[in-house]
């Protein structure tokens, strides 16, 4: 990028001249990866705010949304504001590009929230601002505040495996509807899908404390133990388990141990990104112990059908399970 173009963008950041809006829009759309443009944006950010963000990631997101909105004529500030309203995790920077100081003032009045989402049929690895990491299973989401390092609380809907950095002054808390799970530093799995009847916490290393909201009771787990909370009654139980059956999904292996048919289908829905429709006359009492690695959905259904009286139809992402007697 030529120096005169950088000077023009620099002047726009300082004065927000409407004459330069379209020019700035084009430069961020075409030249985002240029180091000079990134450095200029970073300079103005640091002058205007003490907030620490992954600026390069934010700029790439803006670049994506600018290109997406290019199909229809729009004022650049309107485009930036629409993007801002959709992505609360970064809040400030789109407004900063369109109107630097107004954006800063607005950002400081709101609580910014980041979200990590894994669609059905996927497993993703994530890293949190405090150095903790983990994996998110299909059909799951995590949300947490921008000041996560100082307030290590996050909301989970679905299943996640956590490897938590130790920080005794800032406990790590996983919030779910039935219970909160608090740790200092550990490795554990939480399955908390809103549609499930149980909240399941499985501990591999360290120690976790589970606070049951239904009856205000707590349970502390040791490695190799699992806690289950009935989301309807609030009843809670703890047992020793083979943790690999509950954590191997993060290594792209789904292991099921003596699992009821309905629960097998539920986990396969999340694994393959499909929806099962079970006909009313289909009655299945058999439990399954099996491992899924690279097998396709059709291959697994064929194997299950060898020991169970059912047939199936696959229509896109819908799978219909029918009794052989139908």
Distance between the termini: 69 Å
Share in β-strands = 25-35%
Written as H for each helix and E for each strand, in order along the chain, the element string is HHHHHHHEEEEEEEEEEEEEHEHEEHEE
Second rung of CATH, namely the architecture of the largest domain: Sandwich
Number of helices: 10
Helix content: 25-40%
**Strands, count:** 18
What is the CATH topology classification name of the largest domain? Jelly Rolls
Low-confidence stretches: 48-53, 60-110
What structural class should be given to the helix and strand makeup?
alpha+beta
Q: How many strands, what sense, and barrel or not for the largest sheet?
A: 13 strands, mixed
What's the pLDDT, averaged over the residues?
A: 78
- The value of Rg in angstroms is 25 Å
Any idea how many domains?
4
Q: What is the molecular shape? A: globular
- Broad CATH class of the largest domain: Mainly Beta
Organism: Mangrovibacterium diazotrophicum
Protein name: FecR family protein
InterPro entries: FecR, FecR_C, Ferrdict_sens_TM
Domain Protein FecR C-terminal: 254-321
């Amino acid at each position: 990028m030529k120096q005169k173009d950088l000077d023009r963008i620099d002047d726009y950041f300082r004065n927000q001249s409407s004459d330069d809006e379209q020019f700035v829009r084009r430069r961020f759309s075409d030249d985002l990866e240029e180091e000079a443009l990134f450095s200029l944006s970073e300079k103005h950010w640091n002058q205007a705010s003490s907030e620490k963000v992954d600026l390069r990631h934010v700029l790439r997101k803006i670049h994506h949304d600018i290109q997406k909105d290019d199909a229809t004529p729009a004022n650049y500030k309107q485009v930036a504001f629409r993007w801002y309203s959709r992505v609360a995790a970064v809040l400030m920077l789109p407004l900063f590009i369109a109107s630097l100081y107004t954006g800063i003032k607005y950002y400081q009045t709101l609580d910014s929230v980041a979200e990590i989402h894994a669609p059905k049929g996927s497993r993703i690895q994530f890293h949190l601002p405090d150095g903790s990491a983990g994996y998110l299973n299909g059909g799951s989401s995590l949300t947490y505040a921008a000041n996560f390092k100082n307030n290590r609380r996050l909301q989970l809907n679905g299943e996640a495996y956590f490897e938590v950095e130790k920080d005794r002054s800032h406990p790590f808390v996983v919030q779910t509807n039935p219970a909160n799970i608090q740790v200092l530093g550990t490795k554990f799995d939480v399955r908390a899908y809103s549609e499930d009847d149980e909240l399941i916490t499985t501990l591999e290393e360290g120690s976790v404390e589970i606070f049951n909201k239904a009856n205000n009771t707590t349970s502390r787990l040791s490695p190799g133990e699992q806690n289950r909370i009935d989301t309807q009654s609030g009843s809670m139980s703890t047992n020793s388990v083979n943790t690999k059956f509950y954590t191997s999904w993060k290594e792209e292996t789904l292991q099921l141990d003596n699992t009821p048919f309905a629960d097998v289908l539920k986990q396969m829905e999340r694994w393959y990104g499909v929806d099962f429709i079970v006909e009313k006359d289909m009655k299945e009492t058999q439990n399954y112990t099996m491992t899924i690695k690279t097998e396709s959905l059709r291959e697994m259904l064929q194997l299950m059908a060898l020991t169970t009286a059912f047939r199936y139809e696959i229509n896109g992402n819908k799978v219909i399970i029918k009794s052989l007697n139908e």
